[in-house]
Amino acid sequence: MREIHLNGYIDDAEWFGDEITPESLHEMLYPPGEGAQDDLRIILNSYGGSCNAAVRMFDDLRAYPGNVHIIVSGTAASAATVLATAADRLEMTPGSLWMIHDPSVMAWGNERDLEEAIRLLRACKESILNVYSRRCRKARDEVGAMMRDTTWMDAGQALQDGFIDGVVDMGSGIINAAFCHETNLAQAREKVAAWMERSRPKCIRNANRSQDCEAASSPPISESEMRQPAEPQSRETQRAKPEQAAAPKEHPVSPPGTPAIQLQKRLELITPTKR
Q1: Among 118-132, 166-180, 197-211, whose mean pLDDT is lowest?
Q2: Per-residue model confidence as pLDDT tens digits over 180-196
Q3: What is the rounded end-to-end Cα distance, in angstroms, of the chain?
Q4: How far is 247 from 242, CA to CA, in rounded Å?
Q5: Residue 123 vs residues 27, 118, 119, 141: alpha-carbon distances, Å
Q6: Sign of the C-alpha dihedral, residues 152, 157, 160, 162?
Q7: What are the pLDDT digits (tens) for 4-42?
Q8: HSE (CB half, 13 Å, CA atoms) of 59?
Q9: Do residues 126 and 103 touch, judged by C-beta distance below 8 A?
């Protein structure tokens, strides 16, 4: 049995160096010169990421000709639970955590744009419920409520609710009842929040980070200035290479309310240089 380790955020492409992508997983599943028929054990630790990427990885694992055994060692949160559900047998170590929640998306625009975003979220949630229903014994509406409430589970609770098939001690085999909370829940929540932070548009992210220093160094902002909207940045700008798109630390993007002439100068600083 071959063994591979998946440790990181799930995304469609690699941007920060700590992502698991559909392409990287596919290369692990079908390495050159090795038999792709072998049974496979995957040791998984992931705090979630892109639902789209997770579904692609789920489909790739389901298509793998050998038996797939996944062991969650650490955390499987958010999109990582979608990937994990592809296993022929899914287990967790006693100190691991499992988390499900509603999908989220950043949206801006007019009323029609926001309504479309809501429809997208509802369709995404239904697709996730389709995946969970392959294994989970709970009613669909009950699992949906657990997602809405953002539910963290230890290995014993995940087993009881039918999300996993067993609790495994890496040294002594299957344990069907005993479980513990060795994984730090606060740290796991911080890791999930870190993914949400990196997924937000850069203009919003930098605006939040610069509020304190701007408040300390800038004069009071008048009511008329506060009504001036900041120019939105595209997803492509957010995804650009750090050395091309990231604003210099000494010139962060200002939040809404900055005088237009100052905003224009600062936007010029972060405009990618054509090469």
Answers
A1: 197-211
A2: 435 678 888 888 888 77
A3: 47
A4: 9
A5: 30, 9, 6, 15
A6: positive
A7: 999 999 999 998 889 999 999 999 999 987 666 789 999
A8: 9
A9: no
Strand partners, 167: 92, 175
Question: Would you tell me how many other CB atoms lie within 10 Å of the CB of residue 260?
Answer: 12
This model's pTM is above 0.70: no
Residue type, 232: P
Nearest 5°: the CA angle 117, 136, 67 is 105
Residue ranges and CATH numbers for the domains of the chain are 2-199 (3.90.226.10), 202-270 (no CATH)
Which residue in the block uniquely carries the two structure tokens 């997770």? 54
- Which range of 132-136, 236-240, 255-259 scores highest in mean pLDDT? It is 132-136
Spatial separation of the C-alpha atoms in residues 138 and 116, rounded to whole Å: 30
